[in-house]
Amino acid sequence: MAAILKRDQVLSPRVVEDMIANGHTIVIFEDLVLKLDSWLDRHPGGGLAIQHMVGRDATAEMKAYHKPKDLKTMKAFRIGRKPPGLWKNHTPPIRGGVFRKLHDIPPSPTPMPLVVVEDVDVDDDEDSSCLSDSASDGSDRSVPTSLSSIDSRVEASPAAPKIAPGYEVFWRSSDDPTVTTKVFQGDAAAYTAWAEQRDADLVSLEYPAVDPIVQQDIAKKYSILAQRVHDEGFYTCHYSEYAKEATRYTLLFTLSMTALYHEWYMTSACFLGLFWHQLMFSAHDAGHRAITGNFVVDTLIGMWVADFCCGLSLGWWKRSHNVHHLITNHPEHDPDIQNIPLFATSPSFFRGVFSSYYDFSFVWDAAADFLVPFQKYTYYPVMGIARFNLYLLSWLHLLSSKSSSLGNSSAWWIRPVEITMMSCYWYIFGYLLLWCTLPTWPIRIGFVLVSHIITMPLHVQITLSHWAMSTSDLGETESFAQRQLRTTMDVDCPAWLDWIHGGLQFQAVHHLFPRVPRHNLRRLQALVKEFCAETGIPYTLLGFVDGNAKVLGRLAEVGAQVGHLVKCQKYMAETGESGLH
């Protein structure tokens, strides 16, 4: 009885903060305070998924990713209850959140620096496109920066920000408001800070405010929608649809082997690439436990499809993909957009970022300076060979300590089975097909390139729904539902083309309800549209061509910003002047 009473005790936010400061993994679920220390390394979805929820109310995320019966087991980890009312989310330690122990003396509050801007007159010379260090007359004509209001006075251009030549940015001392100090003179760090804030302000104008009351209302409406999705049977998998899928897969593989038998090598490569392309849609479903709902069965299905048939690690994909779903489009935490020096979809990458997923710093260097300005031209060629990078990431995962060998849990078998299946893939494809069957090296190289380039639409489809969307961090008060809709785009297409897109055209719907089988997503889309209309959250839906244009536009915009910075810094290095008079 005493243990039960203890587990029902109300824990104040200050006590929870102290526990996190002492290294404990504390997550809020409904009104329960969960201590997940012992579960962190055994979680089938990976420990990083839990770490991104530390100190937060993770109710929406946990319900989206787990079946109701699985959530019941979470009560075994409860150590108390949260106080009534809204829970104020903390920034998790993995994202830089700072937590104080109870015995620590709270630091004296320090006023935040105020960023202000000034008008200056500049020459129209093209070498004058740099950011200045001080006003020509030295006067203090500062105004508070609300970058959305700046946009009303400064012409915005998707190609190159026009604010650079005509404004100066100062830091105002919190101790003496009459003193201003220069923070940058054309350098990337200061420009990056401005660009990040500008993007966030523009997004804030378009989406509901991140005020806790507003977001709590959105969360409640999302919870009602989630219950409706459950009650109306959207999680029911129609296996007849997978029978159709299996027929298509078998046909494509048979055509590839028939062409190979008749020595039509490039034709065989085309059909093999189409086989891989279509097959991975089912691996995606299995990875989300959307086929049978059983962890073991869906994992085996997914490994058969991904590891044995395609040579890609399901375990790597699940670890990466789970984090991507939880912290979508965050430059420092979403591995799906961390592609420096080839691509940058956010100005945040200009300052370099430390990836919490890779435990690695992506440094902005000369290679990024050279490659990113051309990224709109290299996008499709790189997507054509992206599969080779997935091979590398898969093996690096399986051979590292991050692989899914979950201690003494029931999932200990995942890693050895994956290694076995991927080894079988390379024996069949690499040795029996490429080496023993194909006659010459030119044919072997051509077969590999054609079969892999054919899968390019899959990689375009994966990036299409996110790379053109917001990468801003609007804070811990933003609801799960709003973040997913703000960072994800759906692709419009007729129903008879759904098999080509494989359900990935409903990414926004999928991000809200990742366990729903893809064959139910078109019906569910109608409910999501109603939810967006009710909450005021924009629902981004574009055709495939328009979606591609939006991605290329974003790549061109960020690339132009890099070109602007490089030009500015080069001018200053050569002249020692800002270029402003």
From TrEMBL:
Keywords in alphabetical order: Heme, Iron, Lipid metabolism, Membrane, Metal-binding, Oxidoreductase, Sphingolipid metabolism, Transmembrane, Transmembrane helix
Regions that span the bilayer: 264-283, 295-317
Pathway(s) where this gene product acts: Sphingolipid metabolism; Lipid metabolism; sphingolipid metabolism
EC number in record: 1.14.19.18
Protein name: Delta 8-(E)-sphingolipid desaturase
Family: Belongs to the fatty acid desaturase type 1 family.
Localisation per UniProt entry: Membrane
Example of a GO cellular component annotation carried by this entry: membrane
PANTHER family: DELTA 8-(E)-SPHINGOLIPID DESATURASE, FATTY ACID DESATURASE 2
Organism of origin: Schizothecium vesticola
